[in-house]
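Hi, here's the filled form for the chain we discussed.

Project: internal
Contact: R.S.
Residues: 338
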Amino acid sequence: MFYCDPPGRSDSRSLMNNGSSVTDINYIMFHDQEPIHLDIHTDLFESAYRRNKDLNFSNGASHLGLIISEKNSEFVEQVCSQFGMTPYYYFFHGWAALDWYRGYNRSFLMPDPSQRIITKSFIGPNRIIGGKRKHRVDLMYHLLKRDISDAWISFPEVCPAENMHINEIATDEQRSTFAAANLPWNFPNEENHPMHSCWLSLFNESAESAAYVITETVFEGRRHHLTEKTFKPICLSMPFVMASTAGSLEYLRSYGFKTFDSVWDESYDLEADDDKRLVMIADLLKQIDSVKEKQMLFEATIPIIEHNYNHFYNGGFEKILWNELSSMLNKITNDFNA
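And the returned structure, exactly as it came back:
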């Protein structure tokens, strides 16, 4: 088994391996939490490939599996082709969300959808904006240009993870718009954009909002890679607009969830061009922001959000994940014993 230690590291020096004996010829590499970025992770995969060969002391052909949590990915395909790895997929972040957000359905932190008074168009939390998350900067730029006036939005001036100022991240065209925005924008009773990945929060702001804007970890390229962020609005009983890779809504629907094409236009999910998709998302959010009867808009989504909430908390989603995980383990067993 190959893995990075400590968790969160992805350089080749952090690569560890553990096998039952020096005669092992089959190894699995776990890269099932973060998306693959070839400019960052190629050295890591090269190191695993080399060590797999170094640890193969028998005359048999070695097998190196790669466990990942992104599907239909051009980047996984390239890594596996280059290093002779076999990919094995399961939805890691689905399991993480079931663990992190368990028990909230037994609390009274979020009012029932039928009891909410909607005064805001949407809520859009943003924390990390540097590095591979620049799509959040681009989306914010488009929202500022459209004069979104009735939403809850948080946005830092300095990325808390990369320690980069917005002027270092934004393009020349974008800088004047951000300069006029008077950043940072914080939610009430918050400062410095705290990390909330592993729990639900912002209950008051969410309860007032007609929709939740999910700005996922990845936005560009051909792949499906959703994280716990996608499940926050589901567990808060909210409709959502998703800023992610093309086909992400369809990917989520494959796990039994429903989306909101009966309430607003979700054709942005079909747009393969990343720049065009971002503009379509911004246009949709402007339309939602312009709706005068936000209460009626939200109430039209209630049957869908109730389905999603029950699917997440009452075992439907977990059953799909178990079947998927069992199928993956059976495939590994068959491949490694062949």
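Let me know if anything looks off before we file it.
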